[in-house]
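#structure-requests
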Amino acid sequence: MKVKANGINFNCELEGPEGAPVIIFSNSLITNLSMWDDQAAALRGEFRVLRYDQRGHGGTDAPSGKYTFATLTDDVIAIMDALSIKRANFAGISMGGMTALFLAERYGDRFDRIFPCDCGPASTPQSAQQWKERIDLGAAKGMDALVDQTINRWFPPEFQAAQVAKVDKVRTMIRTTKYDGFAGCAWALSDYDTRPGLAGIKNPIMCICGTKDQAYPGIQAIHAAIPGSKLVNIEGAGHICNVEQPDNFTKAIRDFIRGG
């Protein structure tokens, strides 16, 4: 369904019993809400599951220009308001994980339990330069040029060899992402810092990360900075750990919302 929020149209999927606890899932860069198919299928009998395509991704509008995490978090609140959702749990991977952290810092009273996954606490000059190179590559050669390098960063070689269909699904998500949406969000990822607000987060936080993810040291730093937070390791998984090990990922989410 389409939801008008914060000035643009968002593509959303809302499933599960009315009145059940709400969990919102937020996608990574150059994917879309279908990255959460396994979680939605497993949880929609028990929870009200809201998935949305981040600004510029999937079926959501892709305004040109640089986006910020202030905008990406305001998007979430506007979607919640449009759907009359007063409070929710929230889980996001990579870009969605940073969105989760900023929501905890800026709008913590709208959320219960929050799951920042496979993400880092802040950009660096090195990462900003890498994002600039990817933005320029996409502009010059199109999104196809980003597919293989992204897949190789995200997924361990053994997973790519064993799960061809799952990897091909992600390849298609990358290839079909609108360039303006990719570039806008990549600019947000090149200039952000959650660190000043981490110690003040009051929500129950569970960090989840694949142990083979390049972001693993970053998630450890986030966990260390948030008082009382939990850390779940998805052993052997890379960057998109919910796709690689959906059962382990979903169990961690379910158990924590239930109070585990």
